[in-house]
């Protein structure tokens, strides 16, 4: 992409009253725009990040047998009445349509997926099933001041599993844990993300959250330093020792964290409500056992920005960066501009993701902008580097500069990957 | 995908009261599920179709310089008040959130994209810009009885262009026409899709629709048989002769059609409302000139189903089919099952898109299901074909059957593409 054509520009200062670090960084970089509190547009650079995060999640869901569907955002009141959540679910957006039909904007989709699965699952032979979607969700959030961390409209991956018995649910639940850690690994967040025990339900003592350490996190967790399991503040008073290694809870380490994912054994909570039964091997009619597994791509994007930055702007991890390389022409010379354009075309042809700063701006502006946008590698072509047929390469996350011959550039970049 | 694992099953009969042909076909095939009137879930097979349609559109938008973004569905009332459409826009879903904040669910996005573009466009140097999204839209439709053709929640590609002058808008408008015909060509709809003149606005006498012939179409168009331009019924009384070739309008042919796309010269309608100006080359402040260009992926999916079918089910065009090949094992023989599985793995490894019917069902059920699902090619492995190391290949849209040696299958299938 040529930066001279890019829809967005970076912003040095933000006029709007926006205090959340991730939103400030992402708005300055031209990744998102704020339409209203908790409601953002994803701009060209930001949408690329979001899509890469979603694709990583999609691939790992597919590995564990997930089948992707897309459920509606408009969900009829009747479904929520059946589960008694029309009145009780926290922060549902509600609206009325033609003929006084009432809808909630989906904040979660048990009310849709359960009767849906009921149309296709009749016997133990039809089980298990693993269904997920990556979809826009809505919550009528009272506090929507944390940028992408707490949106009124946000992207969510929600997976639902259906099982004949508890043992099968437990097996799959562990598989999802592994898949989630794989996702956090690919997102560069694994080392600071903790499997965290949290409030369970009628069906299991605990649910599990994935909490990613961040100073701005809304959650407080207590980490067992021995086995790296954490406990959410909401249950810590009920814990005297680590569930895994028996270390006394007084030795846990307190930390602030962002809940980036959660998994929950629903049991028969929803199948019972919808009278969703199957015929088991023994001929008996039984309630289907369910699990649900959430992970928010837009919240993850906010978390990544919140964690990966310096005073100058965002530092995108390679796996989710909008482009890998920022090719910057630092010269008013027409001949060099032509050379830069050739180099850009060559890199694109070789399959590299390149943002090419071909604008008529000062070196200062271009270098500042490059740091704000935060692509993993900056490639500078200037009068000085061109003299020796070089470009200068610097990773965004270090000060180490290398000179590389232009003719060797393609091979050099390939090795970076 | 192994059909034994597929979440969905085909349905011979539909219990729900559903009269629209596309919805009946798509529900029977297990492509969509109806949650409420005009509100559908896209199931694994259907979501693949939708994504392929979206990807074709995306690629052609990128060819004409479109930059993809993603705007929110929740749009604040204030924006709609500025354009005086809060009360006047047809079929807006409206809702209230925390602190009595009012929102419309986006049915179109001029109210969001105009103030957004205003944040990045200041001078003629920043123009033109072409911004699009592929996003879920909402309309409080009084009549939502046409399946995917008229949804209360639906997928839409909306492109907005921003120009310094009318000439530049006109040039781009023609480019979009060409891109749209390219899209219809790739979707297999070009020959039955007509550029159709329809009501314009203050800025231009006509807008343009793309109308695709279909018996179930809600629109009536009048086609000039000489130059293939059509006229929407809403304006036909004002037309005495063809705008292009001067043929008398009495010689036009009447036809039923589905409006699959529309393009519109907005002029300064929205830029004036938002006071969105730029500094031109001559130093003067001028209103930005805009165009908007819609095309609905889910409506296109409904149109394709509506047009491509026979008594037995859908006949997917290759470019949008959920899978290209339906490999069907017709034998209870364990050894042959193993051979079929090997063949399936081999085809997947070679990069083919294959749905493998490995279920323990009768030949009748499997062949019926295969026609219902409607993949472009059926590949049968049975005791009979296996005797000569053959499979039997039949396109969904013809009765022509060919026997192909199993060892030559990969090469044979490659040539089909």
Task: Count the E strands of chain A.
Answer: 23
What oligomeric assembly is this protein in?
homodimer
Radius of gyration of chain A: 25 Å
Per DSSP, the total helix count of chain A is: 12
Characterise the protein shown here.
2 copies of one chain form a homodimer. Chain A is built from 12 helices and 23 strands. With about 425 residues, chain A is α+β, with helices and mostly antiparallel strands. Chain A has 2 domains: about 300 residues, 2-Layer Sandwich (BirA Bifunctional Protein, domain 2); about 90 residues, Anticodon-binding domain (Rossmann fold). In chain A, the strands form 6 sheets. Chain A has a 5-stranded mixed barrel with strand order 9-10-13-11-12. The model of chain A has no long low-confidence stretch (mean pLDDT about 95). Chains A and B meet through strand 1, strand 2, helix 2, strand 3 and strand 4 of A and strand 1, strand 2, helix 2, strand 3 and strand 4 of B.
């Amino acid at each position: 992409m040529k930066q001279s054509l890019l829809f967005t520009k970076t912003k040095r200062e933000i006029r709007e009253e926006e205090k959340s670090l991730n939103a400030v960084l992402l708005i300055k970089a031209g990744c998102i725009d704020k339409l209203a509190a908790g409601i953002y547009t994803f701009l060209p650079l930001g949408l690329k990040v979001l899509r890469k995060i979603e694709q990583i999640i999609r691939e790992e869901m597919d590995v564990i047998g997930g089948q992707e569907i897309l459920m509606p955002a408009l969900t009829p009141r009747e479904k929520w009445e059946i589960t008694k959540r029309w009145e009780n679910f926290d922060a549902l957006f509600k609206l009325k349509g033609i003929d006084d039909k009432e809808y909630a904007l989906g904040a979660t989709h048990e009310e849709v997926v359960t009767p849906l699965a009921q149309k296709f699952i009749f016997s133990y032979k039809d089980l298990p099933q693993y269904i997920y979607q990556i979809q826009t969700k809505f919550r009528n959030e009272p506090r929507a001041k944390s940028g992408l961390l707490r949106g009124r409209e946000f992207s969510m991956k929600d997976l639902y599993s259906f099982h004949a018995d508890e043992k099968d649910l437990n097996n799959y639940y562990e598989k999802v844990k592994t898949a989630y850690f794989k996702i956090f690994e690919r997102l560069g967040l694994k080392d600071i993300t903790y499997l965290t025990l949290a409030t369970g339900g009628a069906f299991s003592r605990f649910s599990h959250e994935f909490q990613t350490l961040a100073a701005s996190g809304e959650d407080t967790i207590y980490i067992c330093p021995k086995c790296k399991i954490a406990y959410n503040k909401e249950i810590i008073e009920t814990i005297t020792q680590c569930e895994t290694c028996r270390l006394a809870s007084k030795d846990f380490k307190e930390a602030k964290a962002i809940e980036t994912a959660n998994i929950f054994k629903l049991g028969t909570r929803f199948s019972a409500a919808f009278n969703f039964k199957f015929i088991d091997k023994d001929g008996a009619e039984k309630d289907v056992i369910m699990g649900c597994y959430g992970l928010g791509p837009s919240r993850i994007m906010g978390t990544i920005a919140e964690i990966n930055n310096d005073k100058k702007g965002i530092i995108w991890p390679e796996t989710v960066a909008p482009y890998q390389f920022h090719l910057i022409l630092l010269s008013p010379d027409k001949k060099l501009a032509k050379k830069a354009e050739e180099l850009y075309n060559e890199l694109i042809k070789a399959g590299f993701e390149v943002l090419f700063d071909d604008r008529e701006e000062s070196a200062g502006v271009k270098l500042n902008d490059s740091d704000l946008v935060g692509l993993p590698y900056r490639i500078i072509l200037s009068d000085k580097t061109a003299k020796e047929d070089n470009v200068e390469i610097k990773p965004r996350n270090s000060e180490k500069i290398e000179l590389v011959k232009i003719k060797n550039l393609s091979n050099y970049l390939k090795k970076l990957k």
